[in-house]
Amino acid sequence: PADRPSNRARPGDQSRREPPVNPQLILRQTWALFVDAYRELNARKLFWITMILSGLVVGIFAALGISDRGISIFGWHPAFLAQVTTDVIAPSVFYKGMFANLGIGLWLTWIATILALISTAGLIPELITGGSIETMLSKPIGRLRLFLTKYLTGLLFVALQVAVFSAGSFLVIGIRGGVWEPAIFLAIPIVVVFFSYLFSVCALLGLVTRSTIAALLLTSLCWAMLFVVNLADQTLVFLETNQRLIIEEREDRLELMERNAVRLAQIREHDSVEAAEAAGYTPTPEDLASANPFVGTQRSLLESDRESLDDLSFWTGLVVGLKTALPKTSETTALLERNLIDLSELPQPDEDAPVELELTQANQDIVVDDEELSFAVQERLRSRSVWWIVGTSLIFEGVILAIAGLIFARRDF
Description:
Layout: H1 23-42, H2 45-63, E1 64-67, E2 70-73, H3 91-120, H4 123-129, H5 132-137, H6 143-176, H7 187-209, H8 212-270, H9 273-278, H10 285-291, H11 294-324, H12 329-340, H13 370-382, H14 386-410
Antiparallel strand pairs: 1-2
Helix pairs in contact: 1-6, 2-3, 2-6, 3-6, 3-7, 3-12, 4-7, 6-7, 6-14, 7-8, 7-12, 7-14, 8-10, 8-11, 8-13, 12-14
């Protein structure tokens, strides 16, 4: 009938407005999604397997000890570990080093991360292929909020694992090492941020491929690529640092050789250094070459070393530039060691060691002390800012999540 009122909203009709946004309703919906996704993860056996394994790793830490007799395992002192005593390294540094290098560097950032990726890789593919996506989208829930809730659930999986492991390690280091170090709990945000780099890629790949296996394999491939880039960076930093130390040593040797050659030339011409200085004698380059023919050789070697350093610096800068655009997994986890162990707590290189140099030797081969080189490399790597390590990595993650969120919001499921 023509007189039936129309259901269409007319311009200016205020009675057909959309209901106002209810923040409490949004929070309840988000929390319900979060709990549902967590229950899905909690029901998986890998969650509890990883938790049990974390407890076993903490137990291994507790079984290791260090004393003036060396490192012990369940009270047994193996002969091959007798040289590492409390005179070499303090118990607190020993346990903190184990936590940072073995607990975080090996267990959490490799084995536990692989288990976590296996457990969480199916969150997005199973959502969009298992039929549950239609039920979710039929509710008044934004797609982007649904995607981010699933993503944050995967991060919660890792956060719980790291929290349990950090709490156990905190007790072990406090009881066995004699130092209560709250900085240990920095492992929770650091490892979660590290995992988020990989999980963002996994979520995007799972959304695109709709396959858990494909997402897991492609994420592992990306992780391997990051590992290769980081290995190239560390190798170049090692070689460049070694070359810088060689140049410093070469310069010291050349200075010593030139000083001795000057003295020898003065003695040849005026029988004594004092007489030569009183006469105002200055040796010519020919005089120096005659006094010590290896001075010229050292100068040539020094020039060659500097050219090699320029080449290494070029490639190091190129790799660092590439890493700036990529997530820095190794540097992120290394931040924990930077906060736990200061360089002053580590064995210092002997800078007062005497330099012996004979004028009759060319001294072409310079071998840098391993302890000095290791210390210098640590200083170089620790000088990299937190903003460059974490900030640029989070920018990469944000771009990946933005792409994934755009695809999830626009795709017709």
